[in-house]
Amino acid sequence: MSDLSDRSDLSGASEKEIRRGDFAREKGEVILREHEYDGIQEFDQKLPNWWLFTFYGGIAWFVAHWAIYYTGAFPTDQEKVAAEIAAIQEKKNETLAATLASLDDASMMTDWVANPETVARGLTIYSTYCVACHGPDLSATLDAGGTMVPLPGLPLNDHQWKYGAKPMDVFKIINEGTPPGSTGHNGALMQPWGQTLGPVQVAEVTAYVISRNPEDFPMP
Ligand code: HEC
Fold this sequence. Notes:
about 220 residues, Cytochrome Bc1 Complex, Chain D, domain 2, 2 domains, two-stranded antiparallel ribbon, 4 strands
């Protein structure tokens, strides 16, 4: 039964209610609060400890997780992977720079031309960038239904190497293009492919061209 005269403050418990609640709690009893709104009454119970621990634990976990995750105190998995990839890439670049720095006639043959994978990559590059002027068979001609049509480039299978017959001479003409002062071949110059392809791809395509001319470039 609610005692209307006792409910001076509707938003909180009356003094009588609090006293009664303390007493009941001490005795371990479940108590029903006195107030009643639209026929609804409330129990006045302490939340169980397991519930409180979970609740406060959740708050603590949020703070800890937020601090760890958003302040960047620890790298995320993604950052770890990115850092590892960067380290591997750097190592690769170093190895590559060393390889290119030591690139000479002998290493071009033993490290590049002798490697079938390198030569295969060179063929792909040749088929993409060079075939239009030097021809699929390196003859600088194209078979147009029986008649051989000349292409703008020099033949790469005629055993003549205009700018030098050493492996690095071939690398150089491909990398740097027609040297300044040269009128080219029938007035046609070749562009410096190093600027488009970079040194690695130039070395690979050089290896392919050399591999197609074993008589001119014997293995050391
Ligand atoms: C637009 C046409 C064109 C393309 C594409 C082209 N070249 Fe050339 N290439 C030439 C011409 C023209 C010459 C002759 C240059 C000169 O005499 O200075 C030449 C010369 C060369 C030579 C020297 C040949 C010799 O007999 O001394 C080599 C090697 C060569 N090219 C390789 C390549 C490679 C490899 C590619 C692809 C990355 C390529 N070329 C793409 C037109 C081309």
